[in-house]
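Many introductory courses stop at the sequence. We go one step further.
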Amino acid sequence: MKIGIIVFSKTNNTFSIAERLRDALVKRGLDVVIDRVIPVSDDPGPKDSIEFRHLPDVSDYDVIIFGSPVWAFSLSWVMKAYLTQVSSLSGKKVFSFVTKQMASKFTGGNKAIRQIRSAVEAKNAKVDNSFIISWKSKNREKEIADCIDQIAKSL
């Protein structure tokens, strides 16, 4: 089973979660690769179109884990644009996580997760489980550990 963690991260907070997830899964003997979504510009403002320097190809993965920050109470523009361009996800096991700065429940985490789920469904798959990690939360380490443990148990 080949696992791809497809991540966009501007500040490396989201990428650091992807690294911890990869390391934990590799320790369990799994084949895991992190593949970054890299736009030409990662300005967080809304865009009509986004050009990419690197678009990860998901076709070789059996399991895909999408990771993205929340921007302006929504999924980052970069990840939204990437998910519209991704090939079919039919037959793949999919998970997702988002990171956000504020710990409040009403700061876009749930909306971002819904947007990922919708994009994945449009590509003929479903998200098995999703996680929200609040960067400034006193429970951040527990949120990260829960994300890693629940994904690992599902594989």
